[in-house]
Specification:
CATH architecture of one domain: Beta Barrel
Shape: globular
Keywords: Cell outer membrane, Ion transport, Membrane, Porin, Signal, Transmembrane, Transmembrane beta strand, Transport
Order of helices and strands: HEEEEEEEEEEEEEEEEEEHE
CATH superfamily of one domain: Porin, LamB type
GO cellular component, one term: pore complex
Family: Belongs to the porin LamB (TC 1.B.3) family.
Largest sheet: 18 strands, antiparallel, barrel
InterPro entries: G_neg_Bact_CarbUptk_Porin, Porin_LamB, Porin_LamB_sf
Strand content: over 45%
Membrane topology: Multi-pass membrane protein
């Protein structure tokens, strides 16, 4: 009987051994799953006539701050499929789907949204990333697809001053010193999305070659360095003097709140030609600058933790573009200088409620007579008060529902119309609203 069991035992051992070999295969999947993240912003607001309106009150141009986004119902979902393999290699498939960005109408259940082609459901990002490939080494990653690469935005203006947005591919690695280093090629078509395409339908594809080196420890914080070299297919340029190339550079300094408890990010950027939009802000909008366009951009923002109840968010931004030709009346606008200082103190009443106050002062200087301005310098003001109902009363606690009242004003009637003040002859306006927001 024992002799009969020997072949059976041998067969079982062989099967187990072969299973162990298979389990140790380099391409075996160890973990595999989906992550869901996203953003929601629902801004229910009225002007003084109890009317919805299609304006951000100058916020995208560093003229005002506050709860001024015009999107009535903006939703984003980021889906990420992450897979890890036995030999340490991983893969990511990332998609970002967005709806309602830039659409200010209040829709009902009638289904009328399908007749509006603005801000419909769109896939804004879709790319594949592969990491730790054995022939590239640990801490490396390659990617290809449509992406928002290396984004950064001010906390009160909300403007992305750094990004590369478009189709592309790239390589990234973490050096032994811990510094993230990368190279990417990202391209965009300025004509994309237009039914009546300019330039007789010719494509003037713009391409950015990105180099970045992040995480250099110094001066009590860390520095990030970006350089972008841009070019454009020039079969048919928008203007005779349109730029067909350009560059942009930036240095970002990350640390605590200027020596106090909190955090801050300070950056200086410079760009010329196609890189004139804040130096390192590349996308489909990069194709409309002139050969001699250039700009200097400086920003600094962060959050100070004053005590257990008070927090303070601040932002200072300075942007000085030259020779941008924004379609000003009369002669081309040779120089525009914008700067804004904004502050948002918040008071935590308890874990689920806080008071929030926002104030800003901005100045825009242009050549005399441009855009119908009476003065070379125009002042803009914002005051806002809000009560915030939330699950977490921290400065960035979300989700939240925020009833608010905002006052915006300027010293120039032509500028008032430019930022969306609707009452003719008035230089200021109140806005009343309830803003719901969630990050997840």
């Amino acid at each position: 009987m024992k002799h009969k069991l020997v072949p059976v035992a041998a067969a079982l051992l062989t099967a187990l051994a072969s299973h162990n070999v298979a389990a140790e295969s380099a391409t075996d999947i160890l973990t595999d799953g989906w992550e869901v993240h996203g953003y929601g912003s629902m801004n229910f607001r009225f002007n003084e006539d109890l009317q919805s309106f299609d304006s951000e009150l100058g916020k995208p141009d560093y003229r005002t701050a506050g709860t001024s986004g015009k999107s009535a119902n903006q939703i984003e979902f980021v889906l990420k499929k992450h897979t890890e393999f036995a030999n340490g290699v991983y893969s990511d498939f990332v998609t970002r789907t967005e709806y309602g960005n830039g659409d200010s109408f209040y829709y009902t259940s009638s289904g009328a949204e399908k007749t509006n082609t603005v801000a419909q459901l769109e896939v804004k990002e879709a790319y594949v990333a592969l990491g730790n490939l054995p022939y590239l080494g640990d801490g490396t990653e390659i990617w290809a697809g449509r992406r928002f690469l290396n984004r950064a935005a001010g906390i009160l203006s909300g403007e992305f001053w750094k990004q590369s947005s478009g189709m592309g591919a790239g390589f990234e690695t973490n050096l032994s010193s811990g510094h993230k280093t990368g190279f990417a090629v990202v391209a965009a078509d300025p004509e994309a999305g237009f039914e009546d395409r300019p330039n007789d339908g010719e494509r003037t594809t713009v391409t950015s070659f990105d180099l970045y080196y992040y995480g250099v420890k110094a001066l009590g914080g860390s520095f990030d360095f970006d350089a972008k070299f841009m070019t454009r297919a020039d079969e048919k340029l928008p203007r005779v003097d349109s730029a067909d190339d350009g560059f942009g550079v930036s240095v970002t300094y990350n640390r605590d709140y200027y020596g106090f408890d909190g955090w801050s990010q300070t950056a200086i950027a410079y760009g010329e030609g196609l890189g004139s939009n804040r130096g390192v802000n590349f996308g489909g909008w990069s194709g409309d600058w002139l050969e001699d366009s250039k700009s200097l951009f400086i920003t600094s923002y962060g959050v100070l933790n004053i005590n257990n109840n008070w927090q303070l968010g601040t932002e200072f931004t300075y942007w000085a573009p030259e020779n941008m030709d924004w379609g000003a009346t009369g002669n081309a606008t040779d120089e525009v200088t914008r700067y804004i200082f904004a502050a948002r103190p918040t008071y935590k009443v308890n874990d689920n409620f806080r008071w929030e106050f926002t104030g800003s002062y901005a100045v825009e200087e242009v050549n005399g007579g441009q855009w119908g301005r009476k003065d070379k310098a125009t002042d803009f003001y914002t005051l806002e008060a809000a009560s915030v109902f939330t699950v977490n009363a921290d400065y960035f606690g979300r989700p939240q529902i925020k009833p608010y009242v905002t006052w915006v004003g300027t010293n120039d009637e032509a500028a008032a119309g430019a930022i969306g003040i609707t009452e003719a002859g008035e230089k200021d306006q109140f806005v009343f609203g309830v803003h719901a927001e969630i990050w997840f």
